[in-house]
Design brief:
Elements lengths: L1 E6 H5 L5 E3 L11 H19 L9 E12 L5 E7 L1 H17 L3 H12 L12 E2 L2 H12 L8 H18 L5 H8 L2 E7 L10 H9 L7 H11 L3 H23 L3 H14 L11 H15 L3 H19 L11 H17 L6 H14 L3
Parallel strand pairs: 2-4, 2-5, 3-6
Antiparallel strand pairs: 1-6, 3-4
């Protein structure tokens, strides 16, 4: 195994860079949320480049590109993608959109010949990337610049990039060069597998390891890591030991392992006053990035966020677990009535949709209590 770091631009640029996505890989699947996040990362790099106050320009780590190399009968090797096909395809679709929005014929030709096609390619139309069969016609039509496009997620992603890039180029005055520079600051780690006997790097084993084995991180895992990892190690330990574990994770975990992640999703619904998907393995990362965006937009510091979310935990426990009920009214009769109502709503009839609303009501009542 040989690992090296490079930019996504440099990985795509050489005339010898030919990529093949094998048929066992899934078709292109990025949705709007992932496309928007990719574009936000690109724009952050563009703004860094334009900011004269930033002496050291920002970079972005885009993950890994795992491949094996197969000879093609000439001096050119074919890079068979084992992991990273979604990131690779997205980067190339972004490049196609940039090319198509360029008003300079020479710039358009240079981008096509450098990033999208290769004279060494034996694929149709000399494309550098051979997609899985389900996506190849759509992708090839975009590379060729066909007027009639093939419907599907590949074309949808391209159209969304066109929509996002157009005002940046036509209204804000950015140039294609600004975005090329950003691509040169998006870093990937390329991992070339060694397939010699006894090396233990069978591509299928690698694929299974990357995609199937191990328990995925939960929403609460991702949020905890995000909040704590940006702090000095001594602060991480103090905050985790004194607040995060005993006041957030432990009481919620005692109700059920899954309730910590459910709490973060319901808290987000409560604060943003909108509906989010129910937590599952399929949308964990999507919810995480939505949560992260909310925290960065709302709080001046992570400590402010911790203080806020800590105050919601007792209210949430009142909803999901009666035995943890804490009084919300100094009047015992009123408090008993509230407790019974909570039990009726969330345990007798299991009305999940009301949780964020009631969570905020309980929190407002708690904050208004002078005691």
């Amino acid at each position: 195994m040989k690992a090296s770091d490079t930019s996504i631009f440099n990985a795509l640029s050489p005339n010898t860079a030919l990529f093949f996505i094998p048929p066992y890989q899934r078709a292109y699947s990025w949705e709007k949320e992932q496309i928007y996040r990719f574009f936000d990362d690109v724009m952050r790099l563009v703004r860094s480049e334009l900011d004269p106050k930033q002496k050291d320009k920002q970079e972005h780590f885009f993950g890994t590109l795992v491949y094996k190399s197969e000879p093609t009968g000439s001096f050119i090797n074919l890079n068979v993608i084992i992991d990273g096909q979604q990131r690779l395809t997205t980067s190339l679709l972004f490049c196609i959109a940039l090319r198509d929005l360029s008003t300079d014929p020479q710039e358009r030709a240079d981008m096509t010949n450098t990033l999208l096609t290769s004279s060494n390619s034996s694929f149709e139309d000399h494309v550098k990337l051979k997609q899985v069969t389900a996506d190849f016609d759509a992708y090839r039509a975009l590379v060729r610049g066909d007027e009639e496009l093939v419907p599907g997620k590949v074309t949808d992603a391209y159209k969304l990039f066109i929509k996002l890039l157009t005002p940046k180029l036509q209204i804000e005055g950015l140039t294609i060069r600004h975005f090329i520079t950003a691509l040169q600051r998006i870093n990937v780690v390329t991992i070339l597998l060694d397939e010699r006997p006894y090396k233990g790097e069978d591509p299928q084993v690698i694929f299974e390891t990357l995609n199937s084995l191990g328990k995925p991180l939960s929403l609460s895992d991702l949020i905890r890591n995000y909040i704590l990892l940006g702090m000095p190690s001594d602060q991480q330990t103090t905050i985790y030991d004194e607040v995060w574990q005993p006041k957030i994770e432990q009481p919620l975990g005692e109700v059920g392992e899954e309730y910590t992640s459910k709490f973060f999703r319901d808290y987000l619904q409560c604060k943003n006053k909108k509906s989010y998907k129910v937590v599952s393995d399929n949308n964990t990362k999507e919810l995480y990035y939505q949560f992260k965006e909310y925290v960065e937009r709302t709080f001046e510091s992570k400590k402010d966020f911790i203080r806020d979310i800590e105050s919601y935990v007792p209210c949430y426990l009142n909803i999901v677990e009666p035995k943890y009920y804490t009084p919300v009214s100094p009047n015992k009769e009123d408090d008993q009535t509230i407790k019974e109502l909570l039990h009726n709503i969330f345990h007798d009839i299991s009305s999940e949709a009301f949780k964020p609303f009631v969570l905020e009501l309980l929190h407002m009542r708690q904050c208004s209590d002078p005691n």
